[in-house]
Design a protein that fits this description.
The chain is mainly α. The protein has one domain (6-140). It has helices at 6-27, 33-42, 45-67, 78-98, 112-123, 125-130, 132-135. Helix 1 (6-27) packs antiparallel against helix 5 (112-123) and helix 2 (33-42) crosses helix 3 (45-67). The longest helix is centred in the middle third of the chain and has 23 residues, at 45-67. The chain is globular. The two termini are 22 Å apart.
C-alpha cells in the first residue's frame, strides 16, 4: 500500500495544466481557451473557468497518484495510459459533445481529437518527474 505525496501531486497537476495551456497557445487555440469555454458555457465567467480548469488538472493528478501502481506497463508510460483513457472517455465522448463540438470534436474539425490528445500527453509529463519519483524510485535513478 502506498500513500499519495499530496504536495507533488498538486504541483504536478498545476505544472501540467500550465504546460497544457502553453501548448494550446502554440497550437493557435489561444491562451486559456479551455477556461474561457468553461466560463462561457457555465455563464460564470473567466475566473470560474480558470478555477475549474486548474482544479481539474490537480484532481486528475491526485487520481493518477492514487491509481498509478495499479496501471500496466513501465513507470514512465503509466501517466500516458492514464491520460489517454481519460481523454477518450471523458473528453472525446463527454466534454466535446457537451460543449457542442460533437463526438471526438468532429463538429469542429478532424484534427480536434488528435490535438486534444497531444495536449493531454504534454499535461502528464510532470507526473513522471513529480509523482512517479515517489511511486517508482528507480525511474529517476
Amino acid at each position: 500500500m502506498h500513500t499519495i505525496n499530496w504536495k507533488n501531486a498538486i504541483l504536478a497537476g498545476l505544472t501540467g495544466t500550465i504546460l497544457f495551456d502553453l501548448f494550446g497557445l502554440m497550437m493557435g487555440t489561444g491562451w486559456w481557451d479551455i477556461p474561457a469555454l468553461l466560463g462561457e458555457k457555465t455563464e460564470l465567467g473567466l475566473l470560474y473557468g480558470v478555477f475549474g480548469h486548474f482544479s481539474n488538472g490537480v484532481l486528475l493528478a491526485i487520481l493518477y497518484a492514487g491509481i498509478a501502481p495499479s496501471l500496466w506497463g513501465p513507470a514512465w508510460i503509466r501517466p500516458f495510459i492514464f491520460i489517454t483513457a481519460q481523454t477518450v472517455a471523458l473528453v472525446w465522448f463527454f466534454m466535446f459533445p457537451l460543449v457542442g463540438a460533437g463526438v471526438m470534436g468532429l463538429n469542429v474539425g478532424p484534427d480536434m481529437a488528435f490535438g486534444s490528445l497531444i495536449r493531454h500527453w504534454i499535461y502528464v509529463i510532470p507526473f513522471i518527474f513529480l509523482i512517479n519519483k515517489d511511486l517508482f524510485p528507480k525511474v529517476n535513478n
